[in-house]
Amino acid sequence: MPRSVNAAAAKQRKKKVFKRTKGYWGRRKNVWSVAKNADEKGLQYAYRDRRKKKAEFRALWIQRINAAVRVHGMSYSEFMNKLKKKGININRKVLADLAMNEPETFEAIVKKVK
What does the alpha-carbon distance between residue 53 and residue 27 come to, in Å, rounded to a whole number? Predict the structure, then answer.
């Protein structure tokens, strides 16, 4: 019995991998075994970093809030503690946006908390 090979599917699979590795350096872009490994690693990084991105943005929001609150003579932790005690439920993303784009509104929140 002759050997059965699904060449069309194999070609599609390779084409998909090479499309994703386009722009990589050296053999990572055009040699199947190397490109396949590079592609798998790239997908692992993408999966990990989609989660890591959330932590990085949270850290950025905290830095922005801290900088804006220190202008009003308060620390970030003090501000967040007083927000919770007053029952004001505004998340860090919104607070950071207010601090950057609408300082008057942010100042009103800080005064309400003090």
Answer: 29
The enclosing domain of 31 has a CATH number of 1.10.1900.20
Beta carbons within 10 angstroms of residue 84's beta carbon: 11
* Whole-structure pTM value: 0.77
93: which residues sit within 8 A by CB, 6+ positions away?
57, 61
Residue 61 carries which side chain, given as an amino acid letter? W
Return the residue matching tokens 């053999």: 27
pLDDT of residue 4 exceeding 90? no
Question: What is the C-alpha to C-alpha distance for residues 35 and 15, in angstroms, rounded to an integer?
Answer: 11
Residues spanned by the domain of 92: 26-113
